[in-house]
Amino acid sequence: MMARRKPDPEDIDSFLPLPASAMHIIVALAAGERHGYAIMRDIADLSGGSVKMGPGTLYGSIKRMIDQGLVEEADERPDPALDDERRRYYRLTGLGQRVGAAERARLAALLDAAQLRNLGLGTA
Amino acid sequence: MNRLLRVALLVYPRQFRREYGSEWVRTVSDLQVHSGYGTPRIAMTVVGETLTTAIRMRWENLMASAKIALMVIIGAVALITLMLGSAAVIPFFLALAALLALQFGGRERPVRASDLSASRRWYLWLAGAAAAFVVGLIALATDGDNELNTLQWTTWMASWALAVVFAGVGCTLCVSRLVANRR
Fold this sequence. Notes:
By secondary structure, chain A is mostly helical. Chain A has helices at 20-29, 36-46, 55-67, 94-116; strands spanning 34-35, 71-73, 89-92.
């Protein structure tokens, strides 16, 4: 039994591959600060309803992403007059943006490779 | 519904409850108000996710420290050995602990908690239950003189206990998924 190692913030590759749910959260937050329910809704919308993240998974993921410096809590509410000010809003950190970009590049390379091999063409 | 939320929240680790409990409850309330889902669907979502996520979080917390993990495993095996009065069960439970450690104790990633799609694999839990049940049956069938020895008895008891747990989780996830897909 070994203690788990934390990814090294100096080494972006140590975060990769990102689990799908982390990447979904990063993509949702790439558009700006969001509170928990807005992140869930965004994820469902962006995936066409195929990914429905529950609140436990969402906050479990956010907690870990905050611990690792990918996400942080926003101090100011985007528009306190229009929302419940008790809500917490979250945003990407610089590290979170870099890790998201690295994961995007990794997935893009994988898709390119799949396209080169005509994966999915001619199948139902 | 509020009572269910309170109970479900108790299954999550204390630190998570303290830091995110109120946000978690608020988000479930948002789901109720804005998603258009009925209360049964929300309730089953909460139950299904609690089963897959909260328990994993607790296990990961335990496994976060090699020292604590080792103490938990040795303590659990010692306790079970004492309860069953037989050292023959030690390899069985050590193997089980090793499997669980392999499943949950890997390299830390930003997210290890499963999402709701975990309920898609409800049938794997039922298959596990069936396999554990068969192991128990084999243990029962191998008694030559109609009297189980300690190893057979322990195997029978442990495997059927596991089968009950697996079947319970599988059925809950299955109902959760059925309710979720009903809309």
